[in-house]
Design a protein that fits this description.
Bound molecules: fe (ii) ion
Keywords: Glycoprotein, Signal
Largest sheet: 7 strands, mixed
CATH class of the largest domain: Alpha Beta
Number of domains: 2
Strand content: 25-35%
Radius of gyration: 21 Å
Mean pLDDT: 90
Pfam families: Metallophos, Metallophos_C
GO molecular function, one term: hydrolase activity
Oligomer: single chain
Protein name: Jg3200 protein
Amino acid sequence: MKLLLFVLFIKVISADIPRVDPGYDCAYCQPEQYIESQKIFFIEFLVYHVGSTYGWSEKFSFKTPPNGENWIVRAAIYGDMGNKNAHSLSYLQDEAQRGHFDVVLHVGDFAYDMDTDDARVGDEFMRQIQPLAAGLPYMTCPGNHESKYNFSNYRNRFSMPGSHGSLFYSFDLGPVHFVSLSTEVYYFLQYGLKMLVNQYEWLRRDLAAANTPENREKRPWIVLYGHRPMYCSNSDDIDCSVEYTRKGLPFLGMYSLEPLLREFGVDLVVWAHEHSYERTWPLYDGRVYNGTEEPYRNPGAPVHIVTGSAGCQEDTNKFIPHPPAWSAFRSSDYGYTRLAAHNRTHLYLEQVDVDLKGQVIDSLWIVKDKHAPYEI
Ligand SMILES: [Fe+2]
């Protein structure tokens, strides 16, 4: 069998890409990369290594995603993972290497912090996630722990799509349109308002395009993620009561993001920042829209989850004793979320509890016959 596979393993292209512009002036450390494409049957693998005059990495490979929209997208989702106390890391490394995921969404707050010790903490973090990030799209958004030097460590370490320094962007995978935002542009106003305004205007355009009938027909799910939650019921944090992203800038109320979720029919919104897991009922402006059927069957509003308990040196966060009416499930255990967009109508979420050695403690199916703006 091994011999047969060896015979069928065909090297299709071998492309030596001689030099990549590092984006800064450094005569002695120009990074380079080498990529080749290989095929086993109809599955294409890209094999690569990267390096410079300081040395080269070992070879890594990743599988290109299938064409079209009709395949199951499987994602690992979490935020707030540091170098220390990263409880979920070994689970994620293991699952990624076994091929359980097509994409990772790291919803802000890395390393604690990447700029620390002349950015050596950031270097160590990148080595830590290498077993995941070398073989999968490791998609990110900035959190408050990335704010130093105007998010420069974040922007230079992660190359996300688009031309906005990895701060906000979108991408399509299977039946899902993923949108990544910086909630931090609402909080670190010392860096100026321009990025906040740019992001808001870009987001309106991006969601409007994703929501056209043709695009919604082709790729019906819209999943948006950003770092600080619009809703949470933790006992130790004021961010969810500040509500800058939900209701707009203080006093002015401008650039509020929650109305865009309604206007463009965003299906699922993912946050982190709180070191815990929380799922809401379908929710808009503090009110629950559970409808008359099962709550998540054709829900009347977006569903929110907060998943910031991957593990960091700040430990987990507790909750207020009595959950608000919109809170459906919550846990302060370490863990991460799995998402599977099965097809045009069915999307599955589950929460893995690593304190309970990988047990799934929460799960739900969001079922939608139609994806459209909410009638609220
Ligand atoms: Fe945070």
